TrEMBL record:
<keyword id="KW-0560">Oxidoreductase</keyword>
<feature type="domain" description="NAD-dependent epimerase/dehydratase">
    <location>
        <begin position="3"/>
        <end position="256"/>
    </location>
</feature>
<dbReference type="GO" id="GO:0016616">
    <property type="term" value="F:oxidoreductase activity, acting on the CH-OH group of donors, NAD or NADP as acceptor"/>
</dbReference>
<dbReference type="InterPro" id="IPR050425">
    <property type="entry name" value="NAD(P)_dehydrat-like"/>
</dbReference>
<dbReference type="Pfam" id="PF01370">
    <property type="entry name" value="Epimerase"/>
</dbReference>
<dbReference type="InterPro" id="IPR036291">
    <property type="entry name" value="NAD(P)-bd_dom_sf"/>
</dbReference>
<comment type="similarity">
    <text>Belongs to the NAD(P)-dependent epimerase/dehydratase family. Dihydroflavonol-4-reductase subfamily.</text>
</comment>
<protein>
    <recommendedName>
        <fullName>NAD-dependent epimerase/dehydratase domain-containing protein</fullName>
    </recommendedName>
</protein>
<dbReference type="InterPro" id="IPR001509">
    <property type="entry name" value="Epimerase_deHydtase"/>
</dbReference>
């Protein structure tokens, strides 16, 4: 089977690609340029077992452009859509976050309906951002699950800070996908994956100057720029390898639903403690874990992902120590 993987150059997509190849799928990745295609080929060539034909590329410069995916979808059996901006600091919420997230999602669905009637299943990378209600804060005693939706309005998204706009971009993109399926009754089923903060090893062509947002969230505790542990903005996490696997398992599962994929809660004090233990040579840069007391926060229910997708979620210790080693390797090469 040939799977179209959008945004193949990204942090999460690198692990979706790993899992797809490992499960025997052939992959056509969408990237913005030939240069980006070469980088993905380089980072993943050792996973092709000498058969380069298993990985091909289609250039899609901007997912929000009308007809963006019309060519890329032709001839594929299934689609996994990860491409979407994950940034918290932008100049224009609508242009930089909301449009690419929402239009990117509707464009791929329209392209499939138009040019790929053979596609039976589509998996979209949504986010815990489309589940959590940020206005409720850390909400001790509450347990979030797939039944929850972020109640943000489009007006709040347009004028709010970058974090609000990012969370809204994922919420409206996922809603647009479910609305499309309900209104159009296309040939394919839809499933969405909703991860909270994704950490773990960086298997894409990463650079410390342009780290993806969630890896940068850990690196700031290693490079001396973060002096205090501070409050944990989104106290739930998942390992990127589990997210990769979840996309493939969701592709193979017949249910049309959303899955909250998470190992559970965490706080930055735990992260700093693990970093100090894993990287003693960075210890002076890392804030004292005890400097910020732990607080009680909301809980997250991963039972559906465990039951339906059979995922054994990775521990925080494993995830953060592997993130740390991966970032330290990048630092050594810099
Ligand atoms: P990355 O920034 O590493 O990846 C984003 C990918 O999307 C890149 O391939 C990027 O291409 C592509 N992209 C973004 N905007 C456009 C556009 N307008 N046109 C074409 N391509 C575009 O971030 P992540 O890997 O972290 O994010 C991947 C997905 O996972 C996103 O949907 C994100 O919302 C979701 N997610 C991530 C979480 C995390 O903690 N990392 C948590 C929950 C969800 P390029 O590299 O060329 O810019």
């Amino acid at each position: 089977q040939l799977i179209l993987l959008t945004g193949a150059s990204g942090f999460v997509a690198a692990h979706v690609l790993n899992s797809l190849l490992q499960h025997g799928y052939n992959v056509r990745g969408t990237v913005r340029s030939e240069a980006s295609a070469s980088k993905v080929r380089k980072t993943h060539s050792h996973r092709l077992n000498g058969d380069d034909s298993r990985l091909s590329f289609a250039i899609v410069q901007d997912v929000a452009k009308p007809g963006a995916f019309d060519e890329a979808v032709k001839g594929v059996d299934g689609v996994i859509h990860t491409a979407s901006p994950f940034q918290m600091q932008v100049d224009n919420n609508e242009r930089d976050l909301l449009d690419p997230a929402i239009k990117g999602t509707t464009e791929i669905l329209k392209a499939i309906r138009k040019n790929a009637p053979q596609v039976k299943r589509v998996v979209i990378t949504s986010s815990f951002a489309s589940i959590v209600d940020p206005m409720q804060g850390i909400r001790p005693g509450y347990t979030y699950s797939e039944k929850d939706w972020n109640p943000v309005t489009y007006e709040q998204a347009k004028s709010g800070d970058g974090g609000t706009a990012y969370c809204a971009s994922k919420t409206f993109a996922e809603k647009a996908a479910w609305d499309f399926v309900e209104a159009e009754q296309p040939n394919f089923d839809l499933a969405t994956i909703c991860p909270p903060m994704v950490y773990g090893p960086l298997d894409h062509d990463a650079s410390l100057d342009h780290l993806n947002t969630s890896s940068a969230d850990i690196f700031r505790f290693m490079n001396g720029s973060q002096k205090e542990v501070g409050q944990t903005a989104f106290p739930a996490f998942v390992d990127v390898r589990d997210v990769g696997e979840a996309h493939v398992k969701a592709y193979e599962n017949p249910q049309s639903c959303r899955w909250l994929v998470t190992s559970g809660n965490f706080q930055y004090s735990d992260v700093c403690e693990i970093l100090k233990r894993t990287l003693p040579e960075y210890a002076n840069n890392i804030p004292e874990p005890t400097s910020t007391p732990k607080v009680r926060t909301y809980a997250v229910d991963n039972s559906h992902a465990r039951d339906d997708l059979g995922i054994h979620f990775t521990s925080l210790d494993q995830t953060i120590s592997d993130t740390a080693k991966s970032l330290a390797r990048l630092q050594e090469q810099a």
